[in-house]
Amino acid sequence: MATDQRTGDWYGTDEAVSRLRGQAFKSLCLGATLLALVSVFVLLLYVANDAFRPLSADIGWLLTFAASLLLPTLGATGYYYTRDARAGETAAIALGLPVVSLLLTGGVFITLEHIVTVYQWASIVVALAIAAAVVFAHGRVRTSADLERFIVLVAVPIAALVLIPDLILSLPMLPTEALALLGSVVVPVAVVVGWFVRRQRENDRDGAIAAGLTLVVAAAGLGLAPVVGLSPFVWMLLVVVTAVPVGLYVESVVRRGAGTAGLAFPVLVAGGVIVGVVVTEALGFAGPNSWLDWGFLTDPPSRTPEDAGFYPPLVGSVMMLLVIVVSAFPVGVGAAVYLEEYAPDRGWWGRLVDLIEVNIGNLAGVPSVVYGVLGLALFIRQGGLGSGTALVGGFTVSLLILPIVIISSQEAISAVPDSMREASYGMGATRWQTVRNVVLPEALPGIMTGNILAMGRAIGETAPLLIIGAPAVVRIAPDSFTSKFSAMPRQIYTWSSEIDAAFQHGVLAAGVMTLLVVLLLMNGAAIIIRNKYQRRD
Amino acid sequence: MSERSIDVDLTRSSSGQVVKERIYKWLLFACAALTVFVTVAIIYTLARDAITFFDLVPAAEFFTETEWFVRGDGGNFGVWPLVSATLIITVVSAMVAVPTGVAAAVYLSEYATDRMRSVLKPALEILAGIPTVVYGYLALVYLTPALQAIGIPVGTFNLLSASIMVGIMIIPMVSSLSEDAMSSVPDSLRQAGYGMGATKYEVSTGIVIPAAISGIFSSFILALSRAIGETMIVVMAAGLRPRMFNFSNPLNNLLSSGQPMTAGMVNAVTSDATGGSATYLSMFALGLTLFVITFAMNLASDFVAARYQEEYQ
């Protein structure tokens, strides 16, 4: 070292190790991090204030809710944070899960209300059930004919889907809507729940109990729902989409026995809301005159700010997401499976695969407005689909999020340890069997996380929708994939050109808040899935 | 599963099985190859209609003239006003995002405790997940009046607040990519620095940042390409009136409205121009220019990251 004079002195030889400089640098870096976060956070607080207008409420209303809701939840949060971190986690999930699944219930309700009628759905379920039975029977009769079985596996469901639904829909007598829902949604969900519980517990009896309970509680709605003021239809959806996951979670926490204190949190929140409502009603305190209320979510857009609503764009966003789930996710996951499991590393074929990977990385950086132009040229001008329809919007945004889906799925798949694959090959499994039975189930939580995040990206995309001609205002919720649609961000953009302050600081804020809440719930769900999954490794 | 007897012939291989495996393999390959098709389709569709556009509008006009106005189906199509607005947005947003993003990355990678990191990183992720239409709304309805309130004479639509918002939007991108680069600097380098008597400040600025510089630069390029392609913020907050860069009073350009290239595309398609007219087709010419620029920048970012990366064992 002594001979190497070029590198200069040792650090600190000037005897002036400055604590001040280090501290200043550290605070500068922290300040920069916080600057970005705080500036956006403050702006979002303004938006929330404009959307909910909490200060327009009576002071008594605010005090009541502060006492019944805010103080208890703050106290509980403090307790969880300092004493019982495990319960805090349970509390977060126990509060978040019902909210997320209620959102999902809303999505399913919109789907069954506007997009697929219950009867159409039921006929599809029957067709698939018949197809599954045929495939199963064929497998029993001809055990060794692999290729033939593969053809049957592909051909029979397609034939069933083409022929049977129309046949059923043309029947002279159809059961009531509630019964059709019971048969086509509740029964399959009950079967899945039973199968899931049985697999987790490795106990047939528990599985049967879970399935039976789901069925009985949902069916009880036929008689009980009118008593509590719901339609049997809504009751059943609430049971299968909201109550079942919540029930399974609560049961698993109770059985685990750790962090059960967290289960009190949602009860505390719900109780606080109920007490607050009862007290303010009794004392006659007026609530805030919020822009974001039930009417906003269920009304069509309007030129008068007080009547303006968000319902058709909400339906449009759900339809677009359905198209994306069906088109982008299978292709994206398939591509990721190929790149991770099948693609060779060397040879000219390997170079081709390298090229594909570089290309995917670059596609992820192409501006969204360019994808809009691609969708316009590809689907509308070449493909002959109508401009501004949900189908075109969904396909276009699918192309946009495809690289994101592929990259995140690739990460999830490559995280599956090689030893599991080798064990599978050692058992004589083929490559596809390994992928299907070992790799995909193991990578599923990671893939789900990536896909939900990609959906969050998709739901906020605006520029492609402008380019493919999604109309500025849609007053009637779209009822098919080939009718014109508007999505939430598209409607927000339309409203942004209104100069009226009631639009700028009221309706727009409410729309933005709705979009952000949906996004936040989706991202939160993704993060929870990821955390749960990472810990297990 | 357990009650099924295990008398299966594991080495059985029927021709059907082999064919089936092949079908699956090719199906999955088709999924991966679709992405190449997307790239080709983008280039083909953009180029085809851009060529038609240059039949109607001479390329010399497009690339040399300094006036862009659209009247019905025709107008004057000199691209420079749009390019200058895009450049202003990019430069100003970089001035916001680059220092902030790098400082945030240094903090997250070198200084933050685990607990701090577990709060700040998801928060930045959420920032990255906010839709751009929301950022546009924030810029238009809150940031512009705030700027006016502190005495900056900006118009209702102006490039300044749009650029600041674009800058805030790309901070998470700079910080997360730069942080990845900094965290992959091996600890032995830091330990060596401490062994030489360096303070944490000296290790961060003298060792970690130089060692991670290729990753940091590639994050700049990616973030800038994102800024160039950003649409909704500029459409909503910067306005739709094209204005050539005013060299006599450069700062004034920030205060007035402008129309970047992406906004020009949106304007072309949402105006009443008929399909096949020069106005409508200008969208494709702009789109192609935009695609080429961002694609080149993404490739450059890959190249910088790979070429100048320090190799560590």
UniProtKB/TrEMBL annotation, chain A:
Family affiliation: Belongs to the binding-protein-dependent transport system permease family. CysTW subfamily.
The entry's keywords: Cell membrane, Membrane, Transmembrane, Transmembrane helix, Transport
Highest taxon of the lineage: Archaea
Domain named ABC transmembrane type-1: residues: 314-526
Protein name per the record: Phosphate transport system permease protein PstA
TM ranges: 28-47, 59-81, 93-112, 118-138, 150-172, 178-197, 209-227, 233-250, 262-286, 314-339, 360-380, 386-407, 458-478, 507-529
UniProt topology in membrane: Multi-pass membrane protein
Keyword check for Membrane: yes
Major localisation: membrane
Residue runs in coiled coils: none
GO cellular component annotations of the record: plasma membrane
Annotated GO biological process: phosphate ion transmembrane transport
Entry GO MF terms: phosphate transmembrane transporter activity
Alphabetical list of PROSITE patterns matching this protein: ABC_TM1 (PS50928)
InterPro entries named in the record: MetI-like, MetI-like_sf, Phosphate_PstA
Location in or out of the cell: Cell membrane
TrEMBL record, chain B:
TM stretches of this protein: 26-47, 79-107, 119-143, 149-174, 206-228, 280-300
Membrane topology note: Multi-pass membrane protein
Keywords: Cell membrane, Membrane, Phosphate transport, Transmembrane, Transmembrane helix, Transport
CDD domains: TM_PBP2
KW Transport (keyword) present: yes
Keyword Plastid among UniProt keywords: no
Superkingdom of origin: Archaea
A GO CC annotation given for this chain: plasma membrane
Stretches assigned to the ABC transmembrane type-1 domain: 83-301
Main location: membrane
Protein's cellular compartments: Cell membrane; Membrane
GO biological process: phosphate ion transport
Pfam (any one): BPD_transp_1
Molecular function GO terms recorded: phosphate transmembrane transporter activity
Purpose: Part of the binding-protein-dependent transport system for phosphate; probably responsible for the translocation of the substrate across the membrane.
Annotated family: Belongs to the binding-protein-dependent transport system permease family. CysTW subfamily.
Full protein name: Phosphate transport system permease protein
Organism of derivation: Natrinema versiforme JCM 10478
